[in-house]
Write a structure and sequence with these properties.
10-stranded parallel sheet, UDP N-Acetylglucosamine Acyltransferase, domain 1, about 240 residues
């Protein structure tokens, strides 16, 4: 048995699995497939042809802890999920996110509020995208990576598995940190290798190649390969690898 609120709108040929909940004001397009035990929270907007797999929660209202640095100080608008997207099993997407068309958000991923994701993006299995993040078109973020709050990833960026971005050099100490929280900026076409760590406020320049396991402590130069801990210049990116 499902619960579908009387004010929810479902387009033609949309299907809903067993034990799913669709709350008030949800607007769901045509040819949408909703799996089993899915929760679609109030006023969520879902585009035509999108698939929501089993156990997913979309349009969730955030509720930070009393000790959280970031508190909710405004009304958060509904989630907007574009057409022909795929939301994986047990994935959670919060209110206030805007997801472009044909984007895949894989199983067990989390996308927080105030996130903007472009079209044709891949968010891999168990990836976390924190709040106030922008991700450009055709960017790929592979499994188990962590995109910290206040980060920007431009178009055609590649993030390999288990990459960690950070945004707080004070690690929760002193009042000064509040004005200095800043995530990574990863410019167009940059590639970041598996298990790399990017320190707060670092800019990865266009077409940079960060080797696996690097710790990036300073801004990079365009079209360069860097490696090591701390990461240092190794060579220029071969011309045939550039976009």
């Amino acid at each position: 048995m499902n619960f579908i609120h009387e004010t929810a709108e479902l387009g033609e040929h949309t299907t809903v699995g067993h034990f799913s909940v669709i709350e008030e004001g949800a607007k769901i397009g045509v040819n949408v497939r909703i799996g089993n035990r899915v929760t679609i929270h109030a006023n969520t907007i879902i585009g035509d042809g999108t698939t929501i797999d089993d156990g997913a929660v979309v349009g969730k209202q955030p509720k930070p802890a009393k000790t959280s640095t970031m508190q909710i100080t405004k009304v958060i608008p509904p989630l907007e999920l574009g057409k022909e997207c795929t939301v994986g099993a047990n994935t959670i997407i919060y209110r206030g996110a805007i997801i472009g068309e044909s984007t895949l958000i894989a199983d067990l991923a989390t996308v927080r509020e105030d996130v903007k994701i472009g079209a044709f993006v891949i968010i891999g299995r168990n990836v976390t995208v924190e709040n106030f993040v922008t991700i450009g078109e055709r960017t790929k973020i592979q499994s188990n990576s962590y995109i910290t709050a206040h980060s920007t990833l431009e178009d055609h960026v590649f993030i390999a598995p288990c990459v960690t971005t950070t945004n707080d050099n004070f690690m929760g100490r002193t009042e000064a940190r509040f004005d200095k929280i800043k995530g990574a900026i990863v410019k167009k076409g940059a590639r970041v290798g598996g298990a790399s760590i990017i320190l707060p406020g670092i800019t990865i320049a266009e077409e940079t190649f960060v080797a696996a396991g690097a710790i990036v402590t300073k801004d990079t130069e365009e079209k360069t390969v860097i490696k090591g801990f701390p990461a240092k210049f190794l060579k220029n990116v071969p011309e045939e690898e550039l976009l």
